[in-house]
Fold this sequence. Notes:
Radius of gyration of chain B: 14 Å
Shape of chain B: globular
Largest sheet of chain B: 6 strands, mixed
Oligomer: heterodimer
Order of helices and strands of chain B: EEEEEEEEEEE
Strand content of chain A: over 45%
Amino acid sequence: KAGVTQTPRYLIKTRGQQVTLSCSPISGHRSVSWYQQTPGQGLQFLFEYFSETQRNKGNFPGRFSGRQFSNSRSEMNVSTLELGDSALYLCASSSHPQGVYGYTFGSGTRLTVV
Amino acid sequence: GESVGLHLPTLSVQEGDNSIINCAYSNSASDYFIWYKQESGKGPQFIIDIRSNMDKRQGQRVTVLLNKTVKHLSLQIAATQPGDSAVYFCAESYTQGGSEKLVFGKGTKLTVNP
């Protein structure tokens, strides 16, 4: 079956703009989590959605938001982009909340803010 | 607090040697642990997992050891190959405030020299 699909793969934005990233989980998976990955901070949890409800949220400012649709596809949005938002954004899907039986990750969206 | 760390940020081995990647975790209530491998340009990929009621689990060329007494996790890779070059992350899972948490370590970069 198809893996986790993230679009776009690469994105360049300027400071102050907003961006929307998309994630399609593995068919049948209802949990989608988002992570930010930077060289200095590693994998930082952003939020998790399960059956269209946000279950958990990490320590990120309100500029970072997300949602999940009835088909389990998820989007995350970052408004008023800052240079420090440059990172690899990873989406992970799981059949159970919080990946407690393991996640399957997508290849990520590389966001560069200039 | 959330703290899953690695003893060595980088590890360089010769092809054919065995590799050992270590991970210290801080939450004694963690009951599930996962190792992920992340190759350049890709998302993390599940390698092997272990539950807290076990101290050893073997996969194909990989073995995970869990020492709950000292809160230590290790990943052993037998006969390391160039394709094993990647960043390896450990992750611990525990329940906090009624919801499950999955916390990742910062990663160890493994380089396999031919």
